[in-house]
Amino acid sequence: MATMKDISKKANVSLSTVSAVINQSAYVSPELTKRVTDAIKELNYRPNAVARSLKKKSTETIGVIVTDILNPFYPPMIKGIEDVAFDHNFNVILCNTSNEHNRISTYLELMLEKQVDGLLLANIATSADLNEIEKTGLKYVLINRKPPFYDKNFVGINNTLSSELAVNHLVRQGYKRIAFFGGDLKINTARERRSGFISCMMEHGLDVDPKLVFEGEYSLDSGYNNVKKMLMEVEQLPEAICTVSDVVAFGVIKGLRDAGIRVPDDIAVMGNDNSAFSEHFLVPLSSVDHSSYEMGKLSMELLLQVIKEKEAMADRQIILTPSLVVRESCGVNRNT
Amino acid sequence: MATMKDISKKANVSLSTVSAVINQSAYVSPELTKRVTDAIKELNYRPNAVARSLKKKSTETIGVIVTDILNPFYPPMIKGIEDVAFDHNFNVILCNTSNEHNRISTYLELMLEKQVDGLLLANIATSADLNEIEKTGLKYVLINRKPPFYDKNFVGINNTLSSELAVNHLVRQGYKRIAFFGGDLKINTARERRSGFISCMMEHGLDVDPKLVFEGEYSLDSGYNNVKKMLMEVEQLPEAICTVSDVVAFGVIKGLRDAGIRVPDDIAVMGNDNSAFSEHFLVPLSSVDHSSYEMGKLSMELLLQVIKEKEAMADRQIILTPSLVVRESCGVNRNT
DNA sequence: TGTAGATGGCAACGATGAAGGACATTTCAA
DNA sequence: TTGAAATGTCCTTCATCGTTGCCATCTACA
């Protein structure tokens, strides 16, 4: 590969002149400019971003840490991040922890060594994890999940509202005895969706049977297993099941189906997330849309801002508003 | 951030001694080693990978270029790549072209400037694109798709066989009049799956009605629209539809459903890819598994090898064998 | 002589590693 | 036994990777 030195020799100018032409950082006469640009073309020169990064202490690269790229929630988010990054000539280093929590530290160290300009993290739910991030001193934005009392840069959605939308829809459809299949209560989204469910039920004057509120994980298996558990433990089945996320709903429907229970004829099932292909699911899933693509875009834009500021500015929390998507899993309603 | 210089001052040794300790590249007495490691801990020193890369001319970073991360075929592939990369302390820069073909060139330039050690490309189907890649001089491995006559490093699957598995299954289920919903014939996988379909039909002594062979794209809309087209143009519907990929099958089933045609009761539909959630689809989709996760892993391992070799070694083509996955979309068969 | 305009010189950035120096130890002829 | 030469051990010095940008220099003109 040709270097700036080669260009300067070829064009018979100094290194600084070449640099000035490339970065347009100083006036260079048309005459010399031409000689330089000609040489660049002739030698097919490409600037070495590594050298430049070393000098400028900025890599135009960010790290994205995600729990599980296989979860359909993430690809749109990553696409959103990448789209914005691309527009700003940034690159995205993808870190997929595969739900192995201890990978986070390793990735953080790698990102530090690689001198990324910033970090986007979609899986930070505990203060311990947050501490590790803070220790790196890197600029960062959290997405979707956040630790308790976290009030710094963040992009997420209104989880309480997402449950309310779900409950309201179920109530409107005439269901009263409604179960909740939740996630890991260590995660704020799971907590908020759960409490949103409970408070909204109460607002409607409906009982929440503790036996019908399940903890679990954001996974298909969790939904499936909780159905099994419910079928064994509960005498009277609920009329509807409100789930913490679409993948859980997938598991729930599979579990019900395996037990010969029809959705929505026997039990209605509500998703939350509106992940890709929910529309084409066994039973087209009614859900609550979070636009993870939008979350990705906004978080990258926010990070870019944070990176640009020399002085730390006021932190920003962007909370998106979810929206109801009615399909068939809670009774047919072809209007939407 | 502390630098090696800080360490060398603190430990009162030379820079090279610090380097030697860090890289274990030369003998250093236990005494000095301790002084150095102590200083490293005390100052919380992390090597600067950018500086190291500049000197060593290797970044331990690879670029992955993919057409559309939203296509469920890719996330497992990316996960496979990332898993292997992680094990070797490599980082993955994700480039998602979003099916905008001209993004490829931009990404290639970016990757060149960023001095990646290699490239993994999952969307290269034309010789023109290949030329661009070759021009970069970067080491690379192609995944899944390849240009005509390409005989260099490659990881893919036996596409002909995947169609044969599909046709054999359909024939075994008793279907004779079978349509083929294909992809873009500029892409080898689409061509091979198509010709695999045709030749296997002929082997079975079955007619291939040209009116029942559709071109298209690897997308849901393509399947949907081709169904519409078929319903308008064809008097006698086929008994079964063999598709070029699961996403196309998703579109097909949606199209049939919207037209009031039941799957598999009225028409059987066969996928190809076995993408995530096909199992939980409207109609659990019979498909052919390609293990894109495995493809990702193998391609990254191959690339790592290619990077390690100083002399270009013999090129390797790894062709995986697909396997049939029977579910319900071609008539119930709960055996598998 | 002063000043503005156009270009070049050079020291960084943070690491690596070849070459060489200081010192201790071994070898060997006288 | 002795001293010089040879060998070996452990560490340091220094040039280098490809850029950037401050500062110096040089020219031209008022």
UniProtKB/TrEMBL annotation, chains A, B:
Transmembrane segments: none
Keyword Transcription attached: yes
Protein's UniProt keywords contain Cell cycle: no
One Gene Ontology MF term: DNA-binding transcription factor activity
CDD domains: HTH_LacI (cd01392), PBP1_LacI_sugar_binding-like (cd06267)
Keywords associated with the record: DNA-binding, Transcription, Transcription regulation
Classification via PROSITE patterns: HTH_LACI_2
Residues in HTH lacI-type domain copies: 2-56
SUPFAM superfamilies to which the protein is assigned, alphabetical: lambda repressor-like DNA-binding domains (SSF47413), Periplasmic binding protein-like I (SSF53822)
Protein name: LacI family transcriptional regulator
Species this chain originates from: Robertmurraya kyonggiensis
Phylogenetic placement of the source organism: Bacteria, Bacillati, Bacillota, Bacilli, Bacillales
